[in-house]
């Protein structure tokens, strides 16, 4: 809809009545037209007054008389030209992986030293067998024991240091990626299903793998050729036995990977669905118990859990078989090394000490390969978890730096709003356009399924439109700095949820810098202070995740105070009186009146006529389109006329009775 505030100069010609219902019936009085024509001064923004000096009477940007400062209740004034730096979630992933690679460099140094010092024991046995026992030299035994003891102590210390580094690397990964993953999941959930939040569980999987023994086995595998070379120096035949065994173990590992990848993926997918059902059960526990739906809920969860366990058992069976084969091959290799070594010793090609040392070194060379096969399941899970983390962070659009604008006045413009849910072709909102001036209140009414709640979510930016724009003070919501936008918007959703904490924390939006004055002002503006005062602990009353010990109506009124926290300039209330009694309805009506006096633009989505008496405008929404829009009295009169017209029987044609 073209904004009348941007039209040319007015004339004395009265406006023509607009009562056509296709596509929208906009009912405007002469007084409203004059308000629209004068609304330019009410909605002055950067675009409207770009080349004019700021009036000395105008309050500076970001300043107002409320206690929250220009940021909308943050306790600090909003600075006009203060920019917020860009947030690149993919860069956060790069930084996290860079930290991992940097620490793994030190871990590899420690691993190299550890594997070199492991040769101390075989060398000790070899020297005792071939030198000490033959020379019967006590001095040689003492010195050799001292040197080898020092090597073993160093090997133990280096192994502990690399484990310490890996543990701190896991913590570093959580620090580097935790906040970006949660922020990216929150941003992606606007057009997603909410499963993006499960990526935090993938981060835990990644952390667990970094500190697991499987990763240490993977790090030890590159040093297996060193041990094989040492065995080759003892005798080439023994070296060839170990090389052949290594190739057999490699084939077993490849077969294990090919045979377990698909069932493990199926198990993870089914487990993800089961976790979603479990989360749904926790959120709807009261309904499940009240309607005796526990068997059905358990059956739904058990179906996906059974599918996950079936696939997991199938994959684990194959993994266990591969591990058993690898263990059997390694033990047979030990027997072959000792048997063939004894034969070579009989032939006089090597000594008995060499046989024992070669057997120990062979076990150390093959142990990392066997450990990698046994831990392959953890590696597959971690690789999938990292893939989901990388997809989430890399697909999240770059959050460019945005200018921190002056504190908005509350002008709302909706232009050609269209919304089609992703994956469907059903049009929920079809070309909506309307405008609210600062301080005006609007009631959106309509039948269920008309798109009222979807429109309310779009007005606060929690759902992005398929096309069209929602503008606050002429600026599209997507171009506002997110923190500043949230501070200047209040929202009461249809499904009220409170956070675990005190009532004071919930009203203050869980912000640490929320002052008592701001919390009291929000409670007073929402007319809930008296209700809170009747609670045993007042504002310090603890609230659980399900809202207990508050009733449904009390939860709704606390959420109403949260919406008014920080003196926002736009408040959207979705069915705010669905759980309220008569006293609560009166308190809500007084809150809307308080908001009008405070020049807060209010949008109320309601089915009850009680709130229609305290709003300035009414919008009738039908099947995603605006049927009626105008001042309260005019729209109500038009609705009554339409109702009377439907009740009046049609006149007979041609005088027939």
List keywords for this structure.
7-stranded mixed beta sheet, disordered N terminus, about 55% helix, 15 strands, 21 helices, about 650 residues, 4-stranded antiparallel beta sheet, alpha/beta
Walk me through what this model shows.
The protein has 657 residues and is α/β, with parallel strands linked by helices. Helix content is 56%, strand content 10%. It contains 21 helices and 15 strands. It has helices spanning 30-37, 39-42, 89-118, 120-135, 138-188, 199-210, 213-220, 224-234, 236-283, 285-290, 294-346, 352-374, 376-395, 452-459, 482-487, 503-507, 516-525, 529-533, 552-563, 582-597, 632-647, and strands at residues 25-27, 83-84, 402-403, 412-419, 429-436, 441-445, 467-472, 475-476, 489-492, 501-502, 542-543, 570-574, 601-605, 617-622, 625-631. A seven-stranded mixed beta sheet has the order 1-15-14-6-13-12-9, sandwiched between helices. A four-stranded antiparallel beta sheet has the order 5-4-7-8, covered by helices on one side. α4 (120-135) packs antiparallel against α5 and α6 packs across α13 (376-395). The longest helix has 53 residues, at 294-346. The protein starts with 24 loop residues before the first strand and ends in a 10-residue tail after the last helix.
């Amino acid at each position: 809809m073209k904004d009348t505030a941007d039209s040319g100069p007015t004339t004395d010609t009265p406006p023509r009545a607009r009562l056509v219902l296709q596509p929208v019936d906009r009912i405007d009085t002469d007084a409203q037209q004059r308000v629209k024509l004068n609304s330019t001064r009410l909605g002055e923004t950067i675009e409207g007054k770009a080349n004019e000096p700021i009036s000395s009477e105008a309050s500076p940007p970001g300043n107002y008389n409320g206690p929250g400062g220009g940021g909308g209740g943050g306790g600090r004034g909003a600075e006009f030209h203060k920019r917020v730096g860009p947030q690149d979630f993919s860069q956060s992933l790069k930084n996290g992986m860079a930290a991992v690679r940097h620490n793994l460099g030190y871990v590899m140094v420690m691993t190299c030293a550890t594997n070199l010092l492991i040769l101390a024991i075989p060398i000790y046995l070899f020297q005792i067998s071939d030198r000490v026992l033959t020379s019967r030299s006590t001095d040689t035994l003492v010195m050799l024991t001292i040197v080898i003891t020092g090597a073993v102590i160093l090997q133990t210390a280096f192994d502990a240091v690399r484990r310490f580094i890996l543990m701190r690397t896991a913590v570093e990964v959580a620090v580097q990626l935790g906040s970006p993953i949660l922020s990216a999941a929150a941003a992606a959930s606007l057009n997603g299903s909410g499963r993006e939040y499960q990526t935090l569980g993938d981060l835990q999987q990644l952390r667990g793998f970094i500190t697991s023994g499987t990763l240490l086995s993977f790090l030890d595998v590159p040093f297996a050729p060193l041990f094989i070379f040492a065995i080759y120096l003892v005798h080439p035949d023994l070296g060839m036995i170990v090389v052949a065994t290594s190739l057999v173990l490699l084939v077993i590992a490849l077969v294990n990977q090919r045979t377990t990848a698909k069932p493990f993926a199926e198990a993870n997918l089914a487990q993800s669905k089961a976790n979603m059902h479990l989360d749904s059960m926790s959120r709807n526990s009261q309904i499940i118990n009240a309607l005796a739906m526990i068997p059905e809920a358990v059956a739904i969860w058990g179906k996906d859990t059974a599918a996950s366990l079936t696939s997991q058992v199938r994959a684990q069976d194959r993994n266990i078989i591969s591990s058993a084969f690898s263990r059997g091959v390694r033990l047979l290799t030990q027997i072959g090394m000792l048997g063939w070594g004894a034969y070579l010793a009989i032939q006089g090609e090597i000594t008995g000490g060499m046989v024992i040392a070669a057997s120990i070194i062979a076990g150390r060379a093959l142990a990392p390969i066997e450990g990698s096969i046994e831990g392959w399941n953890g590696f597959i899970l971690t690789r999938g978890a990292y893939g989901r983390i990388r997809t989430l962070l890399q697909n999240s659009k770059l959050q460019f730096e945005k200018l921190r604008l002056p504190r908005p006045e509350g002008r709302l413009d909706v232009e050609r709003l269209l919304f089609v849910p992703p994956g469907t072709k059903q049009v929920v909102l079809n070309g909506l356009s309307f405008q609210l001036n600062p301080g005006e209140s609007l009631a959106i009414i309509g039948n269920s399924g008309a798109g009222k709640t979807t429109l309310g979510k779009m007005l606060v930016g929690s759902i992005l439109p398929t096309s069209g724009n929602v503008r606050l003070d002429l600026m599209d919501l997507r171009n506002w700095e997110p923190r500043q936008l949230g501070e200047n918007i209040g929202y009461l959703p249809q499904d009220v949820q409170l956070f675990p904490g005190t009532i004071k924390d919930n009203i203050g939006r869980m912000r640490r810098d929320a002052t008592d004055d701001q919390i009291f002002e929000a409670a007073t503006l929402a007319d809930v202070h008296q209700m809170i005062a009747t609670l045993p602990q007042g504002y310090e009353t603890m609230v659980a995740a399900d809202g207990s010990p508050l009733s449904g109506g009390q939860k709704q009124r606390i959420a109403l105070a949260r919406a008014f926290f920080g003196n926002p300039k736009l408040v959207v209330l979705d069915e705010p009186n669905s759980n309220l009694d008569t006293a609560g309805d009166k308190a809500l009506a007084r809150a809307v009146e308080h908001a009008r006096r405070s020049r807060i633009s209010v949008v109320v989505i309601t089915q009850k006529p009680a709130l229609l008496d305290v709003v300035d405008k009414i919008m009738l929404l039908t099947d995603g389109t605006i049927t009626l829009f105008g001042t309260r009295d005019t729209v109500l009169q038009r609705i009554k006329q339409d109702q009377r017209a439907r009740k009046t029987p049609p006149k007979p044609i041609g005088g027939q009775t």
